[in-house]
Amino acid sequence: MIRLTPWRHPLSATVTVPGDKSLTHRGILFAAVASGVSRVTGWLDAQDTRSSLRLVQQLGVEVKELTPETLVLESPGLFGLREPEDVVDCGNSGTTIRLAAGLVSAVPGLTVFTGDVSLRKRPMRRVLEPLASLGVRSLARQDGYAPFAVAGGPHQGGTVEMTVASAQVKSSLLLAGLSASDPLTVREPVASRDHTERLLAYLGVPIRVTGTTVTVEPVSRVDPLDFAVPGDPSSAAFWAALAALLPDSRLYLPHLLLNPTRTGFFQVLERMGASVRSTVVQTAPEMVGDVEILPGRLTATRVTAEDVPSLIDEIPLVALLATQAEGVTEIQGAHELRVKESDRIQVTADILSRMGAAVEPRPDGFRIEGPTRLKGAEIDAHGDHRMAMLAAVAAAIADGETVIHGAEAVAISYPGFMAQYAQNAGR
Ligand SMILES: O=C(O)C1=C[C@@H](OP(=O)(O)O)[C@@H](O)[C@H](O)C1
Ligand SMILES: C=C(OP(=O)(O)O)C(=O)O
């Protein structure tokens, strides 16, 4: 439990955020696919990425070096990975369990997956069913929840029409495509983050992307990877929201991942009235740059299904900004938030309503009327890292004290968040 009091000053700072979570997971999993010694620098060391690390170790990958900056892994390669001797516990990490389900289609024998109480309630049919259409056998609890088991072995390619826009489902299938007997095409309803496609191309795997259709060819061997992970824009979004909400702030966020499939939050922030300036310093394999945020008068906005994948994890922060914006903000097409680490539509609405905001949860989003003054409250993060950080940002602009239960969940994606928060709040 932590107690937070309002900030009485702007956020005028340079904040360096840890490495991107999605890219760190992929760096670890692709190091397992590659044959030989791979290196991932700037990696995120957090509970979720440790789940991916444990998974690849159970599959026979050796950790050669692990420092706060660098991870060096040695793998026998995709076709040398071995059946895990025990159940693979993916903790709280949806990305680990779903991507790994596709990866282990190449691993002879049985891989049994489980996770924590939250992960065991998240839908897995969305990966197991399309994998089954390629001939990958699996068995799951009723309703398709973990624990489930995947039997590796021969399977084919073909075409899969995805029903949800999900980078986890798409990536799981593309990983299974690497060990299929023929090419695999995956089509998404709306483009989700494309890190897997970019990394596969960077590794020299034959892959074609046309609009929201991706085709990958099977491989016999993949060369090792040397990959630098830039800062996580989803972690940076908490600081950007603070700067947009605290008058006279000036925030500098150096070296962030600026892949356009991830920057929807910064676009919405600008649309709502904040100033967002970015300077691109690298374009391949991923776009990277520095971002500066200045506050402005916030006005309501509309977020639609087309926008959702590019800011899926940041939508609760848009809801918070909307409580301080003039007018009615509507967020639509975000049903996916209901099946994250918590039901993020319900939990966000509960947190903001307790703090005095006018928030109406909808089946697929929110209607929020602003501006309203927020007041401190007693908040339950429901074991969800992003809900705990959302409450901390809200606490900075609320009147009175906010108590957050379950704030230790931040260690899932951003272990240093509360220390950096205290450091900037105390000035
Ligand atoms: O592929 C990824 O790294 C992720 C994809 C998204 O999930 P979905 O694929 O379920 O939308 C996102 O919410 C999650 O934090 C990370
Ligand atoms: C949804 C998230 O992660 P995952 O699906 O990997 O648990 C997240 O980090 O907000």
Automatic annotation (TrEMBL):
Database matches in PROSITE patterns: EPSP_SYNTHASE_1, EPSP_SYNTHASE_2
Pathway involvement of the protein, from the record: Metabolic intermediate biosynthesis; chorismate biosynthesis; chorismate from D-erythrose 4-phosphate and phosphoenolpyruvate: step 6/7
One GO MF term attached to the UniProt entry: 3-phosphoshikimate 1-carboxyvinyltransferase activity
Active-site residues, record numbering mapped to chain: D313 (proton acceptor)
GO annotation, biological process: amino acid biosynthetic process; aromatic amino acid family biosynthetic process; chorismate biosynthetic process
Primary localization: cytoplasm
Pfam family of the protein (one): EPSP_synthase
Protein name from the UniProt record: 3-phosphoshikimate 1-carboxyvinyltransferase
